[in-house]
Amino acid sequence: GAVVSQHPSRVICKSGTSVKIECRSLDFQATTMFWYRQFPKQSLMLMATSNEGSKATYEQGVEKDKFLINHASLTLSTLTVTSAHPEDSSFYICSASGAGAYEQYFGPGTRLTVT
Amino acid sequence: GQNIDQPTEMTATEGAIVQINCTYQTSGFNGLFWYQQHAGEAPTFLSYNVLDGLEEKGRFSSFLSRSKGYSYLLLKELQMKDSASYLCAVRDKQAGTALIFGKGTTLSVSS
User: Fold this and answer.
1) Does residue A18 register a pLDDT over 80?
2) What pLDDT was estimated at residue A100?
3) Are strands A76-81 and A67-73 parallel, antiparallel or unpaired?
4) Least packed by Cβ within 10 Å: which of B13, B20, B81, B88?
5) Nearest to residue B85, comparing CAs of A94, A38, A10?
6) Is A39 left (phi over 0), alpha (psi -120 to 50) or beta?
7) A35 vs B: CB within 8 A
8) Cα–Cα distance between A112 and A65 in angstroms, integer?
9) Per-residue pLDDT tens for A58-114?
10) Interface contact A45, partner B, CB < 8 A
């Protein structure tokens, strides 16, 4: 099956710093990538949808200037959390789908802790 | 908008059968997914329904009734490793290919 990787798997950063999370599709071309956030014992909340080569579409309530998303190629999307605060501590998961595909393949997630 | 409801928690014993229900409200239904998620891990795909009826895949089956806005995931011959959260997710035509997830049902399987 299709494989999606995320890096790093865990990151701890200080308040006010920025953190970049990478999401890669390893064996298929991901025309669309999605970024989700999951707080403990909560479900996945869609943050944004990005299509290769175009600007991401953010969900209501998600600050686009704080969560910068870049989808520069068909195999890589990045999420940068800028000026991180403790309340940004969460599990960030990306998923990817190919052209015309109905299924999304999820990455293993990144645990972000802001101290 | 969309609204997806599923029970918060369920318990069952090894070897039993359990049914996890999901009801949804959406203006432009375009498919329903079930995912399994173990604690601290990413969701893994279980099933996809877009037409009414039952889809069977090994020990897992998923049912959909579009007119009732209802789906269920049926797990047979339960094993301890089936203890996990089960997420119901709906695709809405207005949302493109994005998925809207329910809050998940935490299933605990005991011996």
Assistant:
1) yes
2) 74
3) antiparallel
4) B81
5) A38
6) beta
7) no
8) 18
9) 999 999 999 999 988 899 999 999 999 999 999 999 999 888 777 889 999 999 999
10) yes
